Amino acid sequence: MLPSYFFAHGAPSIVLEDNDYTRLLKHFKDDTPKPKAIVLFSAHWEESVQTVSAAETYETIYDFGGFQDELYQMTYPAKSDRKIVNQIQALFAKHGVENVRNETRGLDHGAWAVLNLLYPDADIPVVALSVNRYLTNEQQYQIGKALGELREQNVLIIGSGGTVHNLGRLNWRSQGVDNWAEQFDTWIQSRIESWDTDSLFKYRELAPNAQVAVPTSEHFIPLLLAMGAGDTNRKAKFLHRSYQYGNLSLSCWQFS
Fold it and tell me: Which pLDDT value is given to residue 172?
């Protein structure tokens, strides 16, 4: 059974960088069996109803501005997999998750930047999934849990977002780490490692600096989705954490 994973995607330029985090992603495939498909929740695709992508071949969405010209030339022409799409929709229906499919939307940078680092050949079918910031945190977890059995079929489930994501507080010249960001992430880490979902679901009330670390929840939600997909054994493995621009958290978790 493949684990599920949470990968922070940081800024779009991460796909061009060489650092400890990008090297971890680039070498991920060296120690992981090649999946038959990838199911990815992206923080940059928000819908009020759970939406499942089913494009024959994905276009690349450049949902950002002001970055290197090279980024706007990059593509990730992965294909979807109708069999997996149908299975996902059936699992959602089984667990009472209202859902629809979208056959035209491409991959946003929350998806393709991570996938370019993990599997640059784009030779694995991808099914992208939306997030909905207006659900409760427990509902987010249950959506991920509904897909957990796909892991038994060699399907890789990924949540792509960021635990600390406040663009208004970034310091583009900073080489250090803001204490408030590290304090928040340390609290989150301790609750994940003990699989304390009761506290995690209430992180906005309990975690230090939660309001500044997570001003809006769309980037935090993929962590709960990936964790829910790993509910069977409830084993969390902390793989990496670093920061860019003072407080933009780059973290990676494995749930098995």
Answer: 87
